[in-house]
Amino acid sequence: MIIKISTFSNHIDFTNNELNVLEIEDKKLFSNIVTSFYNSINDEPSKETLILLKNNEVVSISKCMFMIMDIYSYDFNVKKINNKLISILEQNIINDEDLRYDVEKKIYELANLIPEITSVFSLDLIWDNDIKIQKLLNLFSIKIDQNSEDSYLHRTLRAIDIVRELGLCDILVLCNLKSYLDEEELIELYKYIKYKEQKTLILESKVDEKTIYDERKMIIDYYFNDYIIE
């Protein structure tokens, strides 16, 4: 997969490397590009034109990319993640004949208790007997456990796990990790990204021509010149 940014000659290439870093020296340009990624992923207009290619064909950025702006304050139970979690659980139940039978039997037994529960009223009451598996799962408020005491690194590793296990995207976009992680922590994260085979783009507001571990860098300097370092 390849990401092209309008007006720049080089591109972000995931063909042979899961790990790409885009470093931008000009603060205003950095802000524009971060906002453009965010807007494109959320199907909103953006200042910079971003093009995502998969097997040489243009594909939807909103369907193939997922972005976390601030990993430390990010809520891992946003609607998109929670819906995906419930959808996978529901499909797993549907695909397992024995489990599906057990779940539907329990739903039927619960539904049969409603007349007894509502008998305390003389009112005419109605209710929905057609309870789907998805409704049952939502009833239990199944969510991803979030530990506020996790370190920045551990939260980032957790984000990789969530994205990978739920199949949320092809490419995960993260911002300014190098402001919070030292070199040893970055190497640990990079190794985990490679192990999980999760294509990841890291956007950084500082330029450093030194590479760490297996980084592939695209640098845009103060004069808007762009070049690749591997």
How would you describe this structure to a colleague?
The protein is an alpha/beta fold and 230 residues long. It folds into two domains: 2-74 and 153-229, Rossmann fold; 80-139, no CATH class. 41% of the residues lie in helices and 19% in strands. The chain is built from seven helices and ten strands. The protein has helices at residues 27-41, 61-64, 79-95, 97-118, 133-139, 152-166, 183-196, and strands spanning 2-5, 12-13, 19-24, 50-54, 57-59, 65-68, 171-175, 199-204, 216-220, 226-229. A six-stranded mixed beta sheet has the order 6-7-8-3-9-10. A four-stranded antiparallel beta sheet has the order 2-1-4-5. Helix 3 (79-95) packs across helix 5 and helix 6 (152-166) runs parallel beside helix 7. The chain is elongated. The chain starts with a strand and ends with a strand. The mean pLDDT is 93.
Task: Name a few traits of the molecule.
six-stranded mixed beta sheet, elongated, 2 domains, 230 residues, 7 helices, Rossmann fold, 10 strands, single chain, alpha/beta, four-stranded antiparallel beta sheet
Mean pLDDT: 93
CATH class of the largest domain: Alpha Beta
pLDDT < 50 runs, ≥5 residues = none
Largest sheet: 6 strands, mixed
**Total count of strands:** 10
Ends apart, CA distance between termini: 17 Å
The CATH architecture designation of the largest domain is 3-Layer(aba) Sandwich
Strand residues, percent: 15-25%
Oligomer: single chain
Shape: elongated
Helix content: 40-55%
**Helix and strand succession?**
EEEHEEHEHHHHEHEEE
Q: What is the SS-derived class?
A: alpha/beta
Radius of gyration: 23 Å
In total, the number of domains comes to 2
By CATH, the topology of the largest domain is Rossmann fold
